[in-house]
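Re: the pair you flagged

First of the two:
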Amino acid sequence: MEIKDNTLFRRYEFKYLLNRESANQIKEKAKKFMLIDSHAKKEKNQSYFVRSLYFDSDKCQNFYDKVDGVRSRKKFRLRTYDSQSSEDNLIYLEIKGRHLERTFKKRTQIKSAHLKFFYDNNKLPKLLSFYPNNDVVRDFVFTYLKTKIRPKVLIDYTRQPFINKYGLYFRLTFDSNLFSNRSKKLFIKKSTLSQLNTYPGLTILELKFERSIPLWFLRIIQSHNLNRKSISKFVLGMCKCNLAEETSD
């Protein structure tokens, strides 16, 4: 939804943690300079649902790469914008990572019928024939077989995105209602869903830009005394579900 299929996108990402009052105030100020993303504008409350199934090794290598601040890293996830499985689901396989100071994301669309191959170690290589010459799928299959990554944690949240009216690329996303769940699949029965609420009542604000932050938003950062934080929904979910633990020296 955010980027085109098979497009490599590099940018800076800054994150902040807001209470409900600050989030609403900043949204109102942003509306003077930005537009609601076209996908969200059609939805109720001008926001949409996001679900990601993250993969990691049994030793949680991706988790610790993030926690330890490894400057060149990547992880894989399946992403959708639906909570229930159907033939019409939009599903993407994504690579999300960082190189030095910039983050990058690349994704490719996956057919619903092929989801089962992501859950079966023996059938997984068949994805290469379904998506020939596809860099994202090839990288995923290679990494899956080499490092034995497997689906670990499901992350759900509600996103309200804003895009710049004019000028350089600048995007704001307000993510709330963040839940996590242990899962081996992207879609699971409601009866087996035991989601854990992370940051109840709080909103994660993400700034995404290619070159610089507009002056008007720098004033917002100053007036609201915003402090940039290292926030990873993947790390939060892994900790909340007791799949991994941040350790301090």
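Second of the two:
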Amino acid sequence: CAAMVGNVDLRLGDRAAPILEAHIAASGGRFRGVRFSSAWDPSERLHRAAPEPELLRDPRVRQGVACLARLGLSLDVWVYHPQLDEVSELAAAFPDMTIVLNHIGVPILGGPYADRREEVLSSWKAGMARLAKHPNVVVKVGAIPIRLPGVPSAPDTGPPSSELVAAAWKPFVDPCIELFGAQRCMFESNFP
């Protein structure tokens, strides 16, 4: 393991600094950043990774992010697509810090968004275009849903073919590469 990304509650503000320093020391210098899950949506039908909305705008979190920046660490963020502007604001406030957008900014296709696919894709692409203007932001391309309309995966047909998966993922992967360029995209998988 040449590098690692860990978890520190950035709501601690300036009090996060000694914790971050302890992680750096304990890791032998391999600790490179923090993953901060702030995915939140008003719908109770969706998983909320964050205890409250708009955490990336919270002054306490901004102080914690400033600690990361001072130590030369990166910030991984997990948000839903309606929160992409929060990430853009953060990228503008900390232009010298690398921000890693996890899971392509999670365009929500379920819950209250289930019947709004085209609206979601349009909103997501617009948010991604605004985010791509910040050169300090990179995108993890992964965690893309496969159970999409038109992608058969019934037990009697077996798993979808690579061609079907590629076709289902194309509307998500292509915009990431077009907007951020291949040099600012990386593959991710929760199940390598």
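The chain has a mean pLDDT of 91.

-B.
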